[in-house]
Amino acid sequence: MKAKSYFFLSIFSIILLLSSCDDNDDNRRKPDEKTESENEWIYKQMKGLYLWDVPSKPNFNQDPKAFFESLLYERHKINGDRFSYIVEKENSKAKSGAISQKLGFDIQTILYYKERKSGPSPSVGFFVLNVRENTDAKAKGLKRGNIIYAVNDNQINYDNYQDMEYYLETASSASLSFYDENGLEKTISDIKGNFSGDMENPIWLSKIVEDGIGYIVYNQFEKGNNNEYDIELVKTIETLVNNKGAKNLVIDLRYNPGGYLISATHLASALVPNRNTSDIFLKYNYNSSRHDSLSSLHGNYINFLDHVYNTGQAIPKTNLNSLYILTSENTASASEAIISGLKPYMGDKLKQVGMTTMGKDKGSWAVEVSNFNHVLHPMIMRISNKNNNSEYGGNYENGISPASNLNVNDWEGVYEIVIAKNKYGTIYYCPLISEWKGSMKELGDKEETLLATAIADIKGEKRNTKFKSYETKIISAKVPVIERSRKPIMIVEPIISE
Q: Most buried one in 66, 231, 357, 482, CB count within 10 A?
């Protein structure tokens, strides 16, 4: 095994690997020469990189997106490929994680039911995760927990929600229709984009919530152009733990879909006890038929680090009494890698609060060349911790679950929840608007459901809930497959570590 560590420099790097394929396939007749060339290129990349084997005789007579999809293994199934995707270059810089807008609030696409008789298929809307201070949206009454169902009088649906997301991300003003904390329909007109802060910073909040307990809301593993966000992240941990005495740390990853693996390595290096740079944080496992060639190029594992990569910034050493990770079904990829990779070193000191994570134990590369219009994001490796198939090891495709006493829903006490499934078995937790039971607490509020659960467990107390927990209802719903405009990501690209 090669003792190298690898991270990714840029999501949109050009990868020129490349295995050859048989040029005599009769299926390669297409009406468009450029499409033919692009599909040839796609096939070569997939044959040389993909975690699974590709079909030996695919149908090349398709547009590039359809052709790429035809190569994927057991598409949408839990034990197959749920995460590879292709995107046109002009759309390739779409955000991952919660969308942050100039309007000063953050949203995430969800499915919901207006009332019990709504039918088997839920509606699509935008869940308000966070409303920034000193914004027009805050002043006009938009709150965390509201569900937006229309933008500028246009109803959100399965066909337009991605366009609506993009509009809200870039708009300087908008009118919103939403369900408020009483389940009532409200409209706020002409919200102005007067938020002047740094909308890209993934560290939403850091504070001491009680004596000895620190709290960080971290929305995406984003390093910044010059590692400035990773530097800020490790400094934030040093401030809370080493300067302000937080021996117990709560890191909120419930809305974090992943991102740069180097950022995950920096975070893990600051949290692992008795850090040693010869210790393995994560392992890479490739397709068995090309494992040797890919591992010889890109290594087999990642070690912990003493410094933020390519900077002189020292990563603090901490000795926590406990580390709590807050999760939801939207916690994915690099976020799950933090739990998996640290578990062998922290044991029972690491606890998970919330819901079962998404189950993305795989990493990808961004593949593009200048003469074609698409960027490929194929899954190329499975990620495991140093113990491979032990607890939280090499296969958590069904997600990572908290202990039963710490398994709580983000919406507990606010909505009744309906569980719906699509035809592939993917589970969606859908709030029932007609059963709204109270306001959702702001992130960082000690009474907010997940944070309150963590604090109570740290103190050895039973959590007192202000609202009654409502029984989850289960229906047999066949929900359309929703393409995630903000993909759970963990893209890796080689650079040699310190």
A: 357
Tokens encoding 155: 């109803």
| Secondary structure class of 457 (helix, strand, coil) | helix
pTM, rounded to two decimals: 0.86
- Cβ-Cβ contacts under 8 Å for 227 (sequence gap 6 or more): 308, 309, 310, 311, 313
| Sequence ranges of the domains in the chain | 102-192, 203-364+382-416+438-471
Strand partners of residue 130 = 106
**What is the Cβ-side half-sphere exposure of residue 179, based on CA atoms within 13 angstroms?**
26
Angle 439-443-446 (CA atoms, 0-180°, nearest 5)?
85
In whole angstroms, what is the distance from residue 97 CA to residue 221 CA?
Answer: 10
What percent helix, strand, coil does the chain show, rounded to 5? 25, 25, 50
- Specify the amino acid at residue 3: A
CA 413 to chain CA centroid, Å, is 25
SS (H, E, C) 177-227: EEECCCCCEEEEEEEECCCCCCCCCCEEEEEEEECCEEEEEECCECCCCCC
Strands across the sheet containing 322-327? 203-210, 213-218, 248-252, 322-327, 350-354
CATH architecture of the domain formed by 203-364+382-416+438-471: Alpha-Beta Complex (3.90)
Q: What is the pLDDT of residue 100?
A: 52
The residue assigned the tokens 């190329």 is: 380
Q: Considering only CA atoms, which of 86, 85, 83, 103 is closest in space to residue 165?
A: 103
Domain pair 102-192 / 203-364+382-416+438-471, same fold: no
Helices 261-271 and 334-346 pack at an angle, to 10 degrees, of 30
Q: Rounded to whole angstroms, how far apart are CA atoms 220 and 383?
A: 18
**pLDDT tens sequence across 163-217:** 898 888 878 899 999 998 888 899 999 998 865 544 468 999 999 999 999 999 9
List pLDDT tens digits, range 110-164: 999 888 777 778 899 999 988 888 889 999 999 999 999 999 999 999 899 988 9
Using CA atoms, how far apart are residues 412 and 6, in angstroms rounded to an integer? 40
The DSSP symbol for 125 reads: E
Helix (H) or strand (E) holding 43: helix 33-49
What fold does the segment set 102-192 form as a domain? Pdz3 Domain (2.30.42)
